[in-house]
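Board notes (copied after class):
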Amino acid sequence: MRGLRLLHTHFKGSGLTQEDLMDLVFLRLDSIGVLTVDAGGSPKLFQWAQLAPANPENDLYQISEARSWDKTDIDFLGQIEALEEELSRSSGLARSGSSERALLISVDTAPRRQQDVSLDELNDLARTAGIVVKDRLVQRVSRINPKHILGKGKLAELEVMALQTDASALIFDCELTPAQMRNLADITERKILDRTQLILDIFAQHATSKAGKLQVELAQLDYMRPRLVGKNRALSRLAGGIGGRGPGETKLELDRRRIRDRRTKIKEEIDKVRRQRLSTRQRRTQAGVPIVALVGYTNAGKSTLLNALTHSAIYTANKLFATLDPTSRRLRLPQDREVVFTDTVGFIRYLPESLKEAFLATLEELDSADILLHVADAAHPEIDKQVQAVEGILEEMHLQDKPRLLALNKWDLVDEERCRVIGNIFPLGLPISAATGENLHRLSAEIVKKLPAAKIAPEPSQAEDMQPVL
């Protein structure tokens, strides 16, 4: 709290209004009180309110009853000290850790169930980024507010939730426009993030190769460039033009110029890496070794499957985008066919435009693949939506006609009734379990059937592993 109490008068005899409560929240007041007056101008009734700590009823405010002004005896200092002590106690565990604490927000025209599913995925993204999710807020609207994305009432509710849970960041399950981000930052002092920033942060944490890091940095610069504005707390608020060329404008132009120069340099380096990767693919083609590319939704188990097939030790974790850089391994199948398996980055729904270039650059290996092995998470309740998302991205890449197999992974985690449902939805899908090894021999047999007959396997190579593509 700011250590300030606001006392004002209402001449029409009404008590605290919604506007008063908004001031209480956004001005971070200790309390707000209203004194009504009678027709003669004499004081009549008094009413006050303060923010409420976390409670089972999810009340945002503690509002007193209106009472006679001369019978009011309130220890305001004691009230605010008790409130801050309660807020501190409820957030004590969170403060003891070093992780960022956040609220998740969904504002959409979609049905509530669809918003909840999307927020579940956003929660997994936040967990992967090392963020502790304290609570969530869902609002279904007929039209998105172009200025603040949320109405003023919901913004106040969100601010109180953040105070009650000691959340330091607000994460929106969409891509905020530069104007929305600026307007939200003017209202609250908490960090404002959107879905795109969260995914970019995960990419930055998990990219290990040179090309992967360059692609992530390029996506970050493309996201940042339209969000550089002159009216910023760190810059002068002077406008451009004659008589108004202040240090803030100079700093802004320097930032934009640095971004343009850095983007040009990164693109040149990425082109150089692409030429090297093209040479690698050409050597594979000349060697006559077929390529099987593993594609699928993030956290579907592609890396686990590659480990199970090739006895490798690629990093795996029950997180979204646990592995980002593609990896290739050579394997001689029991059917006496030698192939190269390539693990690629996982896909995700609602992929922001600023990330698509980084995704597509990472997935160039799919162009030279002979077979696409689509790995789907059979245990996920939204498996049909995830499969559709992957198919949509493959179609954008003009790979819809490439031979493919659908592997329904994690089959050991699905009950019998759900198995029948999934079997009806995907009759051509092959149930497997990368964790237990179930049906992997059948999978390898199906892969051999799909391989082009014209490609003849060469003599076994001494080296079983190949270096990562990126």
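Comment from the instructor: Confidence is low (pLDDT under 50) at residues 230-249, 454-470. Residues 247-287 form the longest helix (41 residues).
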